[in-house]
Design goal:
Amidase signature (AS) enzymes; 11 strands; globular; binds glutamine; single chain; about 475 residues
C-alpha cells in the first residue's frame, strides 16, 4: 500500500507498532507534493527540511516508547495560522513575506504532540471567499476535476487532504470555510463550537465567527485531531474552560433514540441542486435505517443568515484589517512620501478585489448614522438565529442539512459575481452566527464524479454527538472513492 493513502489513524497504528517510520512517511508526502502540487496548487509553502527534522525527532520519541496520538503524523495548515518557522501570508500580497514572531497555540499543541508540519496551505485572501480563486498565489484546483474550484476559503486544505498530499489539515471556518471545501473535495471537515479551539495566532477575519477546525480523510481522524487542538487557552479570552472529552473513544454505538432534525426551510431553498437534495435525502435515510428518528423542524430566521453574515463579517473584517497599513507588517509602498498616500497605495496594492470590497462594505456599515441600521440590526437578527437553534435542540439532538447548494463550480464561474458566491454560503453561515459545531461528511457523487457533503449540526460543545453520527454514517455509507490523479 502507498503510505500517502493511509488514514491518520492507520498511520498512527503503523508508527506505534514500528512498521513504518515517521521519516519514511514524511518522505512519501513530500514526494507526492512535488509530483502533484504543480497541478493542484494546494500549498503556498512547503518545508521539507523542517518536516524531515520533525520526523526524525518523532522517530526517536517513538523509539523511546513515548508516542502520542499525533507523533510522526504529517499534517499541513492553512496559511493564516501563525508559524514562526514559515511565512504566514493569508493568501495576500500584503503579508507575502510576513514571518510571525510566534507560533499559534494550535501549532504549539501539534508540536507538543510530535506532529510533522509539511507546509502552509492555499486559501482565499484573508479567508474571504468560497472558491479559493481569491488567493494572491493563484487558485487551487479541485483534485476531482482540475477545471473546478475546490471550494473555499480552506480550499488548499481540502484539496491537499483529498489528493493525499497530507494526512490531515487545519483550516478555519468563519462562515463555512472548513465544511464547504470539505464537501466539494469529498473529505471530512469540522467546525468546532466557538471557543472550543484557541484562536491565538489565527489571523483574524471576523473575530466573533472565526474558528479553527480539522479537515481529514475520516471522521475518526477528525476526532483525533480535534482532541489534540481543543481546550482552554489563557492567551485567547474567547476560549472556553470546558473539559475536552476523549472524542476518539466516543464514536461507536448505535443511533437508536437519536433524533435528527430536518430544517424545512433548508430543503426549500431556491437554487438547491436536485443532485445535492437527492444525495442528502438518501444520507438521511441511511441514518434512519441505522435507528435514528427523523423529524421536521423549523429554523424560521435562517433565511436572513446570508444578509446578517454579510453585514457582520465585513464589519469585523474592516476593523481587523485596519492594522495592515504599511507600517507594522508586510508590504509598504515606498514611492509615496506622505503618510495618507502611503496607506492608500499600500492597501490598494496589497489587498485583492474581494478584500477591498469587504473593507469598503464594512466601513460603510459601521459609519456614524448607519451603524444601527446595519450592524445593530444584523446583531439582532443573529440573536433570533441563535434562539431558533436553542428551540430546535429542545426536540432534536442533531440537525441534518446540505453543506452547499450545488457541487463545485467551474473555475471562473463566480469570479465576477460576488453575490452568487455569497448566496452559496446559505447552509453554512448560521452555525457560525450561533457558534454551534457543525460537521461535513461526504455522502455521494454528482454525476459519478463531483463530491457532495452532508452537514450535521449540534448544540454548543456537542462535538461528540456529531462525530458519532458522522462516523456511523460513514461506516454504513462506505464512501471510499478517491479522485484519480496518477
Ligand atoms: N464564504 C464565506 C465568506 O466568504 C465564509 C468564509 C470563511 O468561512 N472563512 O466570507
Amino acid at each position: 500500500m502507498d503510505l500517502f493513502s493511509l488514514t491518520l489513524c492507520q498511520a498512527g497504528t503503523l508508527l506505534k507498532e514500528g512498521r513504518i517510520s515517521a521519516v519514511e512517511l514524511t518522505r512519501a508526502f513530500l514526494e507526492r507534493i512535488d509530483r502533484l502540487d504543480p497541478r493542484i496548487n494546494a500549498y503556498i509553502s512547503v518545508d521539507p527540511e523542517g518536516a524531515l527534522e520533525a520526523a526524525r525527532r518523532a522517530d526517536s520519541i517513538i523509539a523511546a516508547g513515548n508516542r502520542k496520538e499525533l507523533t510522526g503524523i504529517p499534517l499541513a495548515v492553512k496559511d493564516l495560522i501563525c508559524t514562526r518557522r514559515l511565512a504566514t501570508t493569508c493568501g495576500s500580497r500584503i503579508l507575502e513575506n510576513f514571518r510571525p514572531p510566534y507560533d499559534a497555540t494550535v501549532i504549539k499543541l501539534l508540536e507538543e504532540q510530535g506532529a510533522v508540519v509539511l507546509g502552509k496551505l492555499n486559501m482565499d485572501e484573508f479567508a474571504m471567499g468560497s472558491t479559493n480563486e481569491h488567493s494572491a498565489f493563484g487558485p487551487t484546483r479541485n483534485p476531482w476535476d482540475l477545471e473546478r474550484i475546490p471550494g473555499g476559503s480552506s480550499g488548499g486544505a481540502a484539496a491537499a487532504v483529498a489528493a493525499d498530499m497530507c494526512l490531515a489539515a487545519l483550516g478555519s471556518d468563519t462562515g463555512g470555510s472548513v465544511r464547504q471545501p470539505a464537501s466539494h473535495c469529498g473529505v471530512v471537515g469540522l467546525k468546532p463550537t466557538y471557543g472550543r479551539v484557541s484562536r491565538y495566532g489565527l489571523v483574524a477575519f471576523a473575530s466573533s465567527l472565526d474558528q479553527i477546525g480539522p479537515l481529514c480523510k475520516t471522521v475518526a481522524d477528525a476526532a483525533v485531531l480535534l482532541k489534540a487542538i481543543s481546550g482552554h487557552d489563557p492567551a485567547d479570552s474567547t476560549s472556553v474552560p470546558e473539559p475536552v472529552p476523549d472524542y476518539p473513544s466516543m464514536l461507536e454505538g448505535d443511533l437508536k433514540g437519536i433524533r435528527i432534525g430536518l430544517p424545512k426551510e433548508y430543503f426549500q431553498v431556491e437554487g438547491l441542486d436536485a443532485r445535492v437534495k437527492e444525495a442528502v435525502e438518501e444520507a438521511i435515510q441511511v441514518l434512519v435505517d441505522l435507528g435514528a428518528q427523523a423529524e421536521e423542524i423549523s429554523l424560521p430566521h435562517s433565511r436572513h443568515a446570508v444578509a446578517a453574515y454579510y453585514v457582520i463579517a465585513p464589519c469585523e473584517a474592516s476593523s481587523n484589517l485596519a492594522r495592515y497599513d504599511g507600517v507594522k507588517y508586510g508590504l509598504r509602498d515606498t514611492e509615496q512620501n506622505e503618510l495618507l498616500a502611503m496607506y492608500n497605495a499600500t492597501r490598494s496594492r496589497g489587498f485583492g478585489a474581494e478584500v477591498q470590497r469587504r473593507i469598503i462594505l464594512g466601513t460603510f456599515a459601521l459609519s456614524a448614522g448607519y451603524y444601527d441600521a446595519y450592524y445593530g440590526k444584523a446583531s439582532q437578527v443573529r440573536t433570533l438565529i441563535i434562539d431558533d437553534f436553542k428551540q430546535a435542540f429542545e426536540t432534536c439532538d442533531v440537525i441534518a442539512a446540505p453543506v452547499a447548494p450545488t457541487p463545485a463550480y467551474r473555475l471562473g464561474e463566480t469570479i465576477e459575481d460576488p453575490l452568487t458566491m455569497y448566496l452559496s454560503d446559505v447552509f453554512t453561515l448560521s452555525a457560525n452566527l450561533a457558534g454551534i459545531p457543525a460537521l461535513s461528511v461526504p455522502c455521494g457523487l454528482a454525476d459519478g464524479k463531483l463530491p457532495i457533503g452532508l452537514q450535521l449540526m449540534a448544540a454548543h460543545f456537542k462535538e461528540a454527538s456529531l462525530l458519532k453520527v458522522g462516523h456511523l454514517f460513514e461506516q454504513a455509507a462506505g464512501f471510499d472513492v478517491k479522485p484519480k490523479l496518477d
